[in-house]
Design a protein that fits this description.
The structure is a single chain. Helix content is about 55%, strand content about 0%. It is an all-alpha fold. Strands 1-2 form a two-stranded antiparallel ribbon. A hairpin with a 7-residue loop joins strand 1 (about 320) and strand 2 (about 325-329). Helix 8 packs across helix 14 (about 300-310) and helix 9 runs antiparallel to helix 11 (about 245-260). The radius of gyration is 22 Å and the shape is elongated. The structure holds a DNA duplex. Pfam families: Myb_DNA-binding. Keywords: DNA-binding, Nucleus, Repeat. GO terms for molecular function: DNA binding. InterPro entries: Homeodomain-like_sf, Myb_dom, Myb_TF_plants, SANT/Myb. It is found in: Nucleus.
Length: about 325
DNA sequence: AAAAGCTCCAACCGCGTGTTT
DNA sequence: AAAACACGCGGTTGGAGCTTT
């Protein structure tokens, strides 16, 4: 017979997650590590289905997630990769280690689609490929399976090549994802993990910091307003003060979070990547941050280089899929 | 000032694939 | 081998916040 059911659908809570739930989930994963999602709702007491827990973790709480505006470079990569891979957001996300597939998908649907459409209209009226980075959409569509196959072959080849020089990979991957801090790269996997964890904990802490110190809604990119309100409600439980004046209680919770993540300073909120102040317990979380980074998805740096090279020489890109199957894009 | 329309994103849903029993 | 389920993915949606009228 099969497995037992993951969770019964009745009594399962839906909708936005509250910070309280987030804390419970993060605490549990810190202790037990991610995975075995089926057990999470029962063991944590969360009235959420396992799927929802996993989604919340992977899309929001997981270490290594960068939020906020996409950079021009990220935008370019998404456009290129979308053209190559189609709407395979998870695959695309694997080349943007700090972004979730959901984020990329949303960004594509809300921003890039429109942008491309605009440019397409512009190009049609003028028959002028003004911006080479978007010219991909002008090409005659190929069979998707063919592109996928070619891409996969190419990726495999590159991954293999890269795998032969692990040191190079570590530094390349690391510096690619953190160009501002390439000096501190020690090119070890542990360092990369610490980096990812710190980044994420920083995200969460920043999130809370925003709530605490900036009761006026700071940014939509942080979380939904409902979640924000829920947090304020949570903070002001047993306190008749308004949410905005719940500073002391909020600080207590904030401190709790701080200690949970072993933070010393949260004022690095503007720095995307903080290497310091990791508690030893954080190693559990470190293991989870986008496992592809520095391990499975080796060709990131190479692909990025290729993309950047293409940007400077956009006429054609040759994907060498074997001697007799070179494909010009 | 307020109503209407628009934008954006977190979360849900359903499906395909892989895994376990 | 087959059933039953978990997991992961991509598509879609609900609703809060923003902008325009």
């Amino acid at each position: 017979m099969g497995r037992p059911p993951c969770c019964d659908k009745e009594g399962v809570k839906k909708g936005p997650w509250t910070p309280e739930e987030d804390i419970i989930l993060v605490t549990y994963i810190q202790e037990h590590g991610p995975g075995n999602w089926r057990a999470v709702p029962t063991k944590t007491g969360l009235s959420r289905c396992s799927k929802s827990c996993r989604l919340r973790w992977t899309n929001y709480l997981r270490p290594g997630i960068k939020r906020g505006d996409f950079t021009e470079q990220e935008e370019k990569m998404i456009i290129h990769l979308q053209d190559l891979l189609g709407n395979r957001w998870a695959a695309i996300a694997s080349y943007l280690p700090q972004r979730t597939d959901n984020d990329i998908k949303n960004y594509w649907n809300t921003h890039l689609k429109k942008k491309l459409k605009k440019l397409e209209i512009g190009n049609n009226s003028e028959n002028n490929f003004g911006d080479e980075e978007f010219s991909a959409t002008q090409r005659i569509p190929r069979g998707q399976w063919e592109r996928r196959l070619q891409t996969d072959i190419q990726m495999a080849k590159k991954a293999l090549t890269e795998a032969l020089s692990p040191q190079k990979i570590a530094s390349a991957t690391f510096s690619a994802s953190n160009p501002s801090n390439s000096n501190s790269v020690s090119s070890t996997k542990e360092t990369a993990r610490s980096f990812c964890y710190a980044s994420s904990a920083d995200n969460i802490a920043r999130l809370l910091k925003g709530w605490m110190k900036n009761p006026i809604k700071s940014s939509r990119s942080s979380t939904s307003a409902l979640t924000q309100n829920s947090f304020n409600n949570f903070v002001s439980v047993g306190n008749n003060d308004t949410a905005s004046s719940s500073g002391t209680k909020g600080e207590v919770l904030y401190d709790t979070f701080e200690s949970l993540f072993g933070f010393e300073s949260l004022d690095s909120s503007n720095s995307e990547f903080s290497h310091q102040s990791l508690s030893p317990d954080a190693t559990v979380l470190q293991d989870e941050s986008k496992p592809e980074v520095g391990s499975e998805i080796m060709p990131f740096s190479l692909l990025e280089k290729w993309l950047l090279d293409e940007a400077s020489c956009p006429e054609k890109v040759v994907l060498d899929c074997g001697d007799d199957h070179a494909q010009v894009f």
